[in-house]
Amino acid sequence: GNTVLHAAQLFHGLLLSFFEPLARSLRRIESCGSFSGRLNLPRLARSTTADALAAFDPKHLQPLIQDLRSRCPGLDHADADLAGITRRIIAADGTYLNTLADVAWALHHTKSNGRKQGQVRANVQMDVAHWTPQVVTVSGNDGESEPAAFAKDLLSGVLYVVDRNFLDFAFLNRLLEQDNDFVLRLRANAPATRVIAELPLTAADAEAGVAADERVELTGRGAPAGTFRRVTVVTTDRNGETQTIRLLTNLSDAAAVAARVIAAAYRLRWQIELFFKWFKCFARMNHLLSTSRQGITTQLYVTVIAVLMMYAQTGRRISIYALTVFSLLARGQITMQQAMEFLARRERERELDRARQARRRARKKLV
Question: Is the separation of the CB atoms in 118 and 106 below 8 Å?
Fold first, then answer.
């Protein structure tokens, strides 16, 4: 009754706790006190913080996210073949976060030990060049599929790279209506198609593992109109076993976009899996601070803001090294200049290591 907590104080406290390795719960955040006087209040009390997470609307953080996104510098494509694709490449996928079983709006399932488990899904659209989230939403037992959840917040004028669970005609129609391109991995038995023509492959395509490049039409009910390309790639999985991957795309001009480029674009989808691993392990999103939809969304937004801040400051993809050095900075143990010098030194070490690895591979090829 005698405590006043403003949204700016809550946001500032959550942001500072992101850079504090031990602040993994409301109790630990409370024990951090005023974060060396930065909050203008003695501490973020657990009960007050929990109430505020459920009450405050996370949409007020969206302008800050948009501003930070505009400050993030661009990165060149690592793959020279992808230079011909001028649109931003967005990987879209969802990842599940565990919550309490009694959260009514969460998804519920029974684990192998018989216990009930609640989960929510973070829907992430990530720029693979910057490794920065562009759109993040939260889903529970809304009764909508994963493609339907993403269809509500699609960007425009980008290239979406998505996996098999996005094979949904309503999603694809919505995506195309908003002037987007896509590269989609197909299931083994879907969708139904009619082959119009087989396109020739170059030596570079064959070397990249491309086995077929076909122009097709989708024949299923509600399928998008027009012609598409189906590119078949033969590769090996992590166990060394042969794997056949079929890709569908609306990039139908083979002269402008070679089959191997479509395969290279799909390989970038793995970047969002790496981001999810970072998201859960290092950004500590495996522990949710709230059980409300607004509170979980607020925590996700704060994490996104912290990621964008690190990227905008360094101009490099986020890493555990950047998180470590900015944690020292947040605690006042080093200056910004020292932090940037540390990261620059680390980047030089990585470049030297990459050069050594390249020389070692070249020697092996000669042998």
Answer: yes
In a 10 Å sphere around its CB, with 0-12 CB exposed, 13-18 middle and 19+ buried, how is residue 198 labelled?
Answer: exposed
Three-class secondary structure of residue 98 per DSSP: strand
CB 175 within 8 A of CB 151: yes
Gap between the Cα atoms of 325 and 316, Å rounded: 14
What length is written for the chain? 367
CA distance 64 to 281: 25
- CB-based contact 304:136 (threshold 8 Å): yes
The Cα 162–Cα 92 span in angstroms is: 6
Collapse the DSSP code of 135 into the 3-class scheme (helix H, G, I; strand E, B; otherwise coil) and give the result. strand
pLDDT digits (tens, 9 = 90+) for 295-352: 999 999 999 999 889 888 888 878 888 888 998 888 888 999 999 999 889 889 988 9
Instruction: Find tokens 């669970």 and name the residue.
Output: 165
Model pTM score: 0.83
